Amino acid sequence: MESLGLIAIGAGIAVLTGMMTGIGQGYAAAKAVEAVGKNPDAESKIRTMLILGCGLAETCAIYGMLIAFLIIFVLGGKVA
User: Fold this and answer.
1) pLDDT score for 64
2) Which of 28, 33, 54, 67 stands the most exposed, by the fewest C-beta atoms within 10 Å?
3) What pLDDT shows up at residue 14?
4) Does 12 map to a domain?
5) Residue pair 72/2 in contact by the 8 Å Cβ criterion
6) In whole angstroms, what is the distance from residue 10 CA to residue 77 CA?
7) What is the pLDDT of residues 34-69, one digit of tens each?
C-alpha cells in the first residue's frame, strides 16, 4: 500500500526535470551568446539552433510535469 508521502516525493522528483531543463537552457543560451560574439555573421544559424534546442529541452520539462500530475491524481486517488 502506497503512502501519500511517497507519492508526493515521487511527484517532486518528476518535477525536478523542470529545474534541470532551466539549467540546460541557461547553459545553451550562454554558449550561443559566446558563439555570436566570436562569429557575428552566423547569428541567424546560431539563433535557429538555439531555439530548436531549447524547444526540445522544454518538452522534457513538460513530460516531467505530466508525470507528476499523473502520479498525484492517478496514484494519489488510490491511497486509502
Assistant:
1) 87
2) 33
3) 84
4) yes
5) no
6) 15
7) 999 999 999 999 999 999 988 888 898 899 888 888
Domain range for 70 is: 4-75
- Does 80 reside within a domain? no
Domains: count for the chain: 1
Residue 64 C-alpha cell reads as 516531467
Left, alpha or beta for 22 (phi > 0: left; psi -120 to 50: alpha)?
alpha
Residue reference for cell 486517488: 77
Task: Give the type of residue at 79.
Answer: V
Residue 4 is placed in which grid cell?
A: 501519500
- Joined grid coordinates for residue 10: 515521487
Helix 43-70 and helix 4-38, axial crossing angle in degrees, nearest 10: 180
